[in-house]
Structures are given as C-alpha cells and as structure tokens.
Design goal:
about 210 residues; mainly alpha; single chain; 7 helices; globular
C-alpha cells in the first residue's frame, strides 16, 4: 500500500474505533491473519493484532459491546466508560500504521487518530443519549444494529479496497461533524423550550 492508502486505512480504522473499538480491532486482526490486508514491511509489528490472544480478547469485547449497546442507558454508561478508551485505541491504531522511522508522521498520526476516534465517539454518544430519551425500547436497539451493520460494512470496504479508505475516512469525519452540530442545535432548542414552558424566560415575540 502507498502512503495515501495507509493514511486512508488509518483514518478509517480510527474513526470506526470511535463507534466500535473492539470490532475494529477484531476485524483488522482477522484480515491480517488471513492475508486480506497486505501491509508493507515496516508495518510487520502490526501483526500483533492477528495474535490469537489479542483476537480472543477483542472477540469478548465485541460481544460485550454488542450486548451492552442494545440496552437503553446501559449503552450510555458504556460510552462514558469508553470516552477515553476509544480515542486512545483509535490513536494507537493510527500510530501503528505509520512508519516508525519517521517520528513526525507518528506524532501526526497519533493526534489525528485520537482526534478522529474522539470525534466519532462524540457523535455516537450524543446520538444515543438523545435516542435514550424515547420511552419505547425499540429505537435504541434499531440504532445500535444500524451502527453494527455500518461499522462492519465500512470496515470490509476499507480492508478490501484500501484506495477507498481515504474517501470513507473523509465521509465519516464530515458525517460526525454534521451530527454533532445538528444534535447540539436540537438540544439547545429543547432546553429553550423547556425554560419557556417552566416560565424561566419569556416567550419570544411572534413576528407579524
């Protein structure tokens, strides 16, 4: 893979780690173990992800995350706990994909990888917090299942077609920013509505 493809894969994995860290590690390790993700010689150390013990732990984490993510409010607790774990995992994944002989690129990859994972994690956690407000129990499971399918599909694309990985990374980053901005506006509007309903502030005048 060339530098653009490597950066694309690193960006995609980091952003997807903000959604499903353990699934991302598991899928990457399995792809390496079976040779689906060919890597340059300088990335040989990354083969540690294909270690059976690492795959086993990642599989357990994937199952735990899959189950926790389907239960309203449990997923919010899980997201809170992983508020540091996911960005750190995304940063380390990106760091591992960069040539260790170039410290400058390593620092850049670590910062961008952690930032990307934090961005996607923030979008996910905020979205799920809003969904949890719904009194019915099905929306949370539906959104979680959609995240599972999207993560698995995008991981498969990024691994099978590395040239597409940079496009996937850009789209994921843009989508996360749009979601965060939209949810922030929604929460601000809801807060203002509640204040008016409680009489904490006067209602805004209606233009003629």
């Amino acid at each position: 893979m060339g530098i653009v493809e490597i950066l694309g894969v690193a960006g995609s994995l980091s952003l997807l780690a903000g959604w499903r860290l353990y699934l991302t590690i598991l899928a990457t390790g399995v792809a390496m173990r079976f040779g689906w993700l060919p890597l340059p010689e300088h990335l040989a150390a990354l083969q540690i992800l294909a270690n059976p013990w690492v795959l086993g732990v990642a599989a357990i984490g994937t199952l735990a995350e899959f189950l926790a993510d389907k239960i309203a409010w449990v997923d919010s607790v899980w997201d809170t706990v992983h508020g540091i774990v996911r960005p750190l995992g995304g940063a380390l994944l990106a760091l591992a994909l960069v040539d260790s002989s170039d410290p400058a690129w390593q620092v850049i990859a670590f910062l961008l990888g952690g930032g990307g994972a934090l961005l996607s994690h923030g979008a996910k956690a905020t979205t799920r917090a809003v969904v949890n407000v719904s009194p019915e129990p099905f929306s949370n499971a539906a959104v979680s299942t959609g995240e599972d399918v999207a993560t698995g599909g995008l991981l498969a694309l990024a691994i099978a077609y590395p040239p597409l990985a940079i496009i996937i990374a850009i789209l994921l980053a843009v989508a996360a920013i749009v979601v965060i901005i939209a949810l922030r506006r929604l929460l601000r509007n809801v807060k203002a509505t509640l204040k008016r309903a409680l009489g904490d502030e006067p209602a805004a005048p209606i233009d003629a």
